[in-house]
Amino acid sequence: MSATSTIPVRVSEIEPVAESIKRVRLERPDGRPLPPFSPGAHVVVSMNDGGRIRRNPYSLMSEPDDRGYYAISVLRAEKSRGGSAFIHDVLKAGDELTISHPVNLFPADKRGRKHILIAGGIGITPFIAMMAGFARDNVPFELHYAMRSRAHGAYWRDLVASYGAHRIKPYFSAEYQVLPVATLLENQPLGTHVYVCGPDRLTDCVLDAARNTGWPAANVHTERFLAPAGGKPFDVELIRSGITVHVGEHESILEAVEAAGIDAPCLCRGGACGQCETSVIACDGQLLHHDVYLSDDEKAGGRKIMICVSRFEGTRLSLDL
Amino acid sequence: MAIMFRQETFRDDFTYRNSPANIHRFPFPFDRDEYAYSVNIEPHVPGRKGTIYESLIDVDEHYVAEMADRALVLKEDPLRYQALPHMMQAQWDVLELLMEQQAAGYPEHFSLTRNGDRWRWINRPLGIDDTFTFGARETLPYEPLEYIGRQTQGDLCIVDQRDNNLWMDAGLVTTQADWSLDFDVGMNFMEWHGPVPLAHGMGIFDRALKFLLNLQLGQPVRRFNWTMTVNPRLDTSPENYHKWGRDRTTVTPVNVGRKVHLRVELQTLWRLPRSNAMLFVIRCYLMSMEELVTVPKWARRFHRVLKTLPQELVDYKGMTRYRDTTVEWLSRHDDGAPTSPGIWPD
Where does the sequence pass through the membrane (chain A) (predicted)? Predict the structure, then answer.
């Protein structure tokens, strides 16, 4: 879906909370309330890094009911593509950014009778809002939180103080403590849900243990972010119109065609309705199909493309437009 | 401009009529001369003045009478409102959305004042002035969905999203085209669409579901659905089939223009912020054939659509007994001239 609906925000506070982790507080410049959000939601933050737009998703960790501000936490990635380095080195209080509306691809199951949250490192962020929700609704939960060391871990002291040591269990690998995933999942009452957010190794370990101990797949949740809408820029030749348009990193073919003043049929702008189906006349490279309209055979055939969501990588693309 | 609300009925003496101005804002759903199934979803953005898209939640001259009819249906059958326990937060989301939209679109009729969690809601057409605490069930006379549903045109369904599916876990449904909330509550998207012919094999529901699972906050979408109803009856429910089913045998060449109605549903879908659930508003608009043919383009086009409609769809939509009579009557209003693109009157 096209990301046309964005919210302008200003950084009202940015502070280190642990080794390589900063917490950023975002408010609307006009003082109006932000939309409420559901625990587990994230926003895509757009940053203007010296003329280059960077977009990264971050989980919201503020109180879901507090519409005055959003908070995110950012780990400086070791192999940063630029977004987390920008936030750590350049971003300061008073700077303006834009964010998407909140999107939730990691919601708590509202029917759950008990929730087990397993976090590794910066994976703690979505759980902070989730725990606020569970505590408010008086739903049983426990957090198992693995960190490198006391200095690298963020928020664990506050969480133990807020929710009690019986619900918050930190594990520090520098002290040879291991999060006992298998034993944890072995004996849980019916109606329990487990959520994992952290490095792939931790996620895989939880998924394996859940499978081995017979958990229903619907009760096991892993964090997902919305795939960034854009991709590498490319040119498209429009045969009937007799022009070539450039498709930028953060726009769709449809948007580029419309910007060139050409009226292309479209309806849903989300790759579902089929209206913008366009014939491919020449293609030296690979079509990147992101729609749910074309069949697998049609996608493999390479003769059609849904220009509202799909992209191209290669040297030459010509369309019947 | 203040709306002049009509006094009219949707049962017994059926005094429901559209004013000439309201006919012109009717959501005629056909943009070409034949009907084809499609995933006809588009962004629900405000549209032209004087159309039903002027406000995202449309209020029209039938508002007061529709709310009176809804109250009668609920009194006779309280199961038209149902909400599973895990949907309470979504109910509050819906109450907020519908109050905000109606107050923004029609400030002369509705107003919402917030002071922290203390909210004051004024609904002038229905004579309501309530102050309550947002989030506190006991401060409202009904559960939040039922409270705001008794003050909003259109059926309301709240669907929960989990396991890559959508689940019909709450609703207030009194103006439905022959489906039952009591039967469908708790079902998933594929289950509640089970009875629809042809579309499953075409993959329509697989695509629509994938699209809807990605529905984003602040970007609602809409689609049309349509059928026909004999007499301007809102409550054509399975529960009351014994009251309206036989109406379909009463259509004659003499009364068809007055009795047969095009029934259009404007379905809007909204992501809800606090609960991550989704609101389906299914808003029903009714227009008699006599009213429809006052717009020449619609008369020509609807005649052609109805004439070429596949038999499976005629049967599914319950029009088998009176389709031919209606096509015959409409043919007198179709001179064969070409029709212009789009749905609006010329």
Answer: 116-135
User: Which sequence positions of B are flagged as catalytic?
Assistant: 223
At which of A167, A201, A222 does a domain end?
A222
Contact flag B274-A36 (C-beta cutoff 8 Å): yes
Chain B residues in contact with A273 (beta carbon < 8 A)? 38-42, 211
Helix (H, G, I), strand (E, B) or coil at A88: helix
Which one of B87, B203, B273 has the shortest CB-CB distance to A37? Answer: B273
pTM, two decimals, is: 0.89
**Confidence at A130, pLDDT banded by 50, 70, 90:** very high
- Residues of B at the A interface, defined by Cβ within 8 angstroms: 38-43, 86-87, 89, 93, 160-163, 203, 206-208, 210-211, 214, 216-219, 221, 273-276
Question: Among A222, A256, A279, where does a domain finish?
Answer: A222
CA distance B283 to chain A (A): 20
Alpha-carbon distance A19 to nearest alpha carbon in chain B (angstroms): 32
Q: Is the pLDDT of residue B196 over 90?
A: no
Same domain, A145 and A185: yes
Residue A105 maps to a domain: no
Q: How many CB atoms within 10 Å of residue B287?
A: 23
Question: Cβ contact (<8 Å) for A104 and B221?
Answer: no
Bridge partners (DSSP) of residue A25 are A13, A71
The closest CB to that of B163, out of A100, A102, A218, belongs to A218
Q: What's the pLDDT score for residue A266?
A: 79
What's the confidence (pLDDT) of residue A2?
37
Considering the domain architecture, whether residues A95 and A118 belong to the same structural domain is answered as no
> Looking at the partner chain, which of A107, A218, A270 has a beta carbon nearest the beta carbon of B276?
A107
- What is the spatial distance between Cα A186 and Cα B36, in angstroms, rounded to a whole number? 53
Cα gap A25→A73, rounded to integer Å: 9
Model confidence pLDDT, tens digit, residues A230-276? 789 999 999 999 999 999 887 889 989 988 988 888 777 788 778 89
Domain that holds residue A194: 114-222
Asked if B41 lies within 8 A of A218 by C-beta distance, the reply is: no
Chain B nearest-CA distance from A64, in A, is 7
Query: What mean pLDDT is reported for chain B?
Result: 94
Instruction: Determine, for residues B219 and A35 on separate chains, whether the beta-carbon distance falls below 8 Å.
Output: no
* Residue type at position B226: W
pLDDT digits (tens, 9 = 90+) for A34-82: 999 999 999 989 898 888 778 888 999 999 889 999 999 999 987 766 7
**A270, amino acid identity:** G
CB contacts < 8 A, A to B, total 82
Candidates B39, B86, B217; nearest CB to A35: B217
Distance CA(B113)–CA(B105), nearest Å, equals 15
Question: Residues A23, A92: one domain?
Answer: yes
| CATH label of the domain that carries residue A239 | 3.10.20.30
The stretch B288-301 carries a mean pLDDT of: 97
Residue B104: the pLDDT is 96
Q: Tens of pLDDT along A266-309?
A: 777 788 778 899 999 999 999 999 888 888 899 999 999 999 89
Asked if residue A29 belongs to a domain, the reply is yes
* Residue A252 and residue A213 share a domain: no
Domain for residue A107, yes or no? no
- Residues in chain A with CB shorter than 8 Å from the CB of B161 are 107
User: Do A60 and A134 have their domain in common?
Assistant: no
Of B202 and A175, the structure prediction assigns the larger pLDDT to A175
Q: How many domains does chain A have?
A: 3
Q: Which residues pair with A98 in a beta bridge?
A: A8, A46
Percent helix, percent strand, percent coil in chain B, to nearest 5: 35, 20, 45
With a CB cutoff of 8 Å and minimum separation 6, the contacts of A311 are A231, A232, A234, A247, A252, A253, A287, A288, A290
Q: CB B86 to CB A110 under 8 A?
A: yes
Q: Is residue A106 part of a domain?
A: no
Label residue B147 by pLDDT band (50, 70, 90): very high
At residue A227, the pLDDT reads: 60
What CATH number did the domain enclosing A31 receive?
2.40.30.10
Q: How far apart are CA B256 and CA B293, in angstroms?
A: 12
* CB within 8 Å: A268 and B207: no
